[in-house]
Amino acid sequence: MATFPIFPQPVAPARDIPEYLPARMVNEFVYCPRLFYLEHVRGEFLDSVDTIEGQHLHRVVDKEGDSLPAAADLGEDALKTRSVTLTSERLRVIAKLDVVEVRNGEVTPVDTKHGRPRETKSGIELWPSDKVQLVLQILLLRESGYRCEEGLVFYATTRQRVRVVATPELIAETERAVAAAWALVAQPIIPPPLEDSPKCPGCSLAPICLPDEVNRIGRQPEPDPDQLLLFEVEGAAAPRKGAGSEVRRLLAPREERKPLYLNTQGLRVGKSGGVLQVREKEALLQEVRIHEICQVNLMGNIQVTTQAIQTLCEAEIPVSYFSQGGWFYGTTNGLATKNVFLRQAQYKLAEEAWFCRRLAGALIAGKIRNQRTQLLRNHEEPPARVLSEMKDMADAADKGPVLESLLGIEGNAARLYFGALQGLIKVESQGDGALFQFDFQGRNRRPPRDPINALLSLAYSMLTKDMTIACTAVGFDPMLGFYHRPRHGRPALALDLMEPFRPLIADSAVMQAINTKMVQPEDFVSAAGAVALRPEGRKAFYRAYELRMDTLVTHPLFDYRVSYRRLLEIQARLLGKMLQGEIGSYPVFVTR
Predict the structure, then answer these.
(1) Quick one: which H or E segment has residue 562?
(2) Measured distance CA(194)–CA(233) in Å, rounded
(3) Residue 332: its H or E element
(4) Are 529 and 490 spatial neighbours (Cβ–Cβ below 8 Å)?
(5) Average of per-residue pLDDT values in the chain
(6) CA-CA distances (angstroms) from residue 226 to 14, 187, 218, 230?
(7) pLDDT per residue over 334-348, tens digit each?
(8) Which residues contact 562 (CB under 8 A, 6 or more apart)?
(9) Which of these, 133, 206, 313, 461, could form a disulfide with 27 (CB 3.0-4.6 Å)?
(10) Which domains does the chain show, CATH number per domain?
């Protein structure tokens, strides 16, 4: 794992402060200031089992009931109403109250929570974050003129109602929490993660927050002490232990959903309910449940209905478009990512030559080291001179030379690497009479003129697609890079970040497809000097590529195992955290 200090200054973008702070966000702030910042300031969100169950639970209480009478019009009759929205101009807070019960002229808010109450030696009580949110609802009712002394939280899992009285101490604590949350909204720097907190494993935003990973890497420079939060919450971030602390894997090692590849020309994709329907003319060929796929890949002349695209966008499932030969055109995505501040940081630092030089050098150094590892692991007899020179070139690239020199270093390393690549091929030649041989004489493209180059070009196109999807999911603009300069239609940032993964994913998938005979010489066709895969060969290679993407690999810095597909997103998120000043270095992935 290669790391290098960059220390970009956090970008402090000009942004509008919201008019009101939702009471549920104050709950998030007390639970974890970093979670609050991710959700409320950056607009990041991921569903989990708990959030989906919570949404299902609120399907009843979110339905509007009879309107709550004005305070002056309340009588002695008992009544109950749902989904009442109130605001406080003093605190600048807005809240939607699940249920309001009225009895003898006094109102009582009842908040519905998924889960269970806190158990202590003295009995059950509210969690601190739930307590602050409930007291805030009481304050909003009072400011609206109602008589309100207490509130209730109904915990659905245990079917228990827990009562709290708004004492002066609780009111003061709640108002401090609101003030501290407003202060955090105005800050350009996100709070550090919690340290070894039991809250993190159950948090739906753990794959975005990456608390243990950020704590392991460390943050430089440290924020100004004057910008630190003044409101202390239970379980808030403690001084970090640094590299010695254990990194918990808080995200699934693999993406359970699978990519969908459509390769037959003339297919038409529609949808019925939550199912994609693939048809050839009027014949129904296949039905695929939308919640079981993570992306749709259209290879060539394949049509998709507007209804299907709208549903896929809503489900945050990207649709990728390729030529029949595998050229990657681009993707269609929904509007799930709201963190515009990450893109502002990306645009700002892309103009800084020193930053681009250091990041590009580290990425190319990582690529060369991974190429060298490929030869060490898989070559029958790796040439000592090649290994020695590639080591020197990786060290030279790591120093962040000017762009022209770096291009030369990368080109020389590629010449050495591809010159030795034939030693990774373990299949025997097909005989002199065979139309094609797996005989690699060097890299060529546009068009590829032999089977191995055809496979490499297709593999790099597939990897570009997956890295583009990862960049988009994180919130980057994939078209603006730091090494690959802007060019019309080229996802430059995706090309930057995929450099260290070319030998590990694309080249390995090609070698696996050849050596296991998933793809054979008869799967290729030649036309006008170009060599391309037949449809059956492409289908077989997509399977080999996805097997590689699904392979678990141990992260050398965090010591947990994740798939290569998941790893692409982790690395993209780590770059985002470095650009926004959360960590002081970008850990380029270099396999052991």
Answers:
(1) strand 561-563
(2) 11
(3) strand 328-332
(4) no
(5) 84
(6) 20, 11, 20, 9
(7) 876 667 889 999 999
(8) 249, 251, 253, 254, 552, 553, 555, 570
(9) 133
(10) 21-184 (3.90.320.10)
In the structure, what pLDDT confidence band is assigned to residue 466 with cuts at 50, 70 and 90?
A: very high
CB 366 within 8 A of CB 589: yes
* Cα angle for residues 146, 151, 153 (degrees, 5° grid): 145
Least confident of 74-83, 106-115, 451-460, 561-570: 74-83
Sorted by sequence, the CB contacts under 8 Å of residue 506 that are 6+ apart come out as 456, 459, 460, 462, 463, 545
The answer to whether the beta carbons of residues 479 and 486 sit under 8 Å apart is yes
Q: What is the pTM of this model?
A: 0.84
Q: Model confidence at 225, in pLDDT bands (50, 70, 90)?
A: very low
How do residues 499-542 score in pLDDT, each as one tens digit? 999 999 999 999 999 888 898 888 888 877 788 888 888 889 99
Residue found by looking up tokens 């000592």 in the block = 384
Q: Can you read off the two tokens belonging to residue 344?
A: 């502002």
Residue 464, classed as helix, strand or coil, is: helix
CA 299 to CA 290: how far, in whole Å? 19
- What pLDDT was estimated at residue 42? 87
**H or E element in which residue 314 lies:** helix 306-314
